[in-house]
TrEMBL record:
Residues 158-199 form the Zinc finger CGNR domain. Pfam families: ABATE (PF07336), zf-CGNR (PF11706). This is Zinc finger CGNR domain-containing protein. It comes from Pseudochryseolinea flava. InterPro entries: ABATE, ABATE_dom_sf, Znf_CGNR. SUPFAM superfamilies: Jann2411-like (SSF160904). It comes from the Bacteria. The lineage of its organism: Bacteria, Pseudomonadati, Bacteroidota, Cytophagia, Cytophagales.
Length: 203
């Protein structure tokens, strides 16, 4: 199977989890990295609906003018992704995240939330990130907001880790017993393996 950003499934259920899942597997080899350039990060951000077309256009122009900055921001994004993976993998497995992981998360969250605004309207409150000018940090800021939102909702039992590929996903099933990131991918592969082992055992 040819892997590209176009074929990448968005099975996480929210932006932060889809971002974590921009490698094909967290269990075993080979690992396929979907985000090899800053342009890949922008393309994924557009696919996931994180950034609007005008934002993407501006960032592409800036990345072309400042490629070294774009390269640094890509490395930062990958580091944040891996820290988010450690954080939510711990939660999915009923563990308390390591202090260093939590500290890294809080440090990046404070950067994102410099632009946090609360707007009040009739019987409701809008909490969002707002800045007058877009920056290279825009994708990560919105990803961190997504991670913060799921943590504050408190439904930790809905945060799952796929036992086959290690992807993180939000279980939105009615009974909260979804096991696989995607039943048609990891679920069907696991069933095929189970069938193979049963046949081999009985042969």
């Amino acid at each position: 199977m040819i892997r590209t950003l176009e074929t990448l499934q968005l099975d996480g259920g929210l932006h932060a989890f889809d971002f974590i899942n921009t490698v094909n597997t967290r269990h075993g080899e080979p690992v396929f990295e979907y985000l090899n350039t800053f342009e890949d990060l922008l393309s994924w951000s557009g696919k996931a609906g994180i950034l609007r077309p005008k934002q993407l256009q501006w960032l592409r122009q800036e990345a072309g003018l400042r490629p070294k900055v774009a390269a640094v921001k890509l490395r930062e994004a990958i580091a944040v992704r891996e820290n988010l993976c450690l954080l939510f993998s711990s939660i999915a497995n009923g563990k308390v995240p390591d202090a260093s992981v939590a500290s890294n998360f809080n440090d990046r969250l404070s950067v994102a939330f410099k632009n946090l605004n609360v707007r009040f309207r009739s019987a409701a409150v809008d909490i969002h990130l707002h800045r007058e000018e877009i920056s290279f940090d825009e994708p990560l800021n919105l990803i961190m907001k997504s991670a913060f939102d799921v943590l504050t909702e408190g439904d930790f039992h809905r945060i799952k880790e796929c036992p086959r590929c290690g992807w993180i996903f939000l279980d939105t099933s009615k009974n909260g017993k979804r096991r696989w990131c995607n039943m048609n991918v990891c679920g069907s592969r696991e069933k095929a393996l189970e069938y193979y082992y049963r046949k081999s055992k009985n042969a």
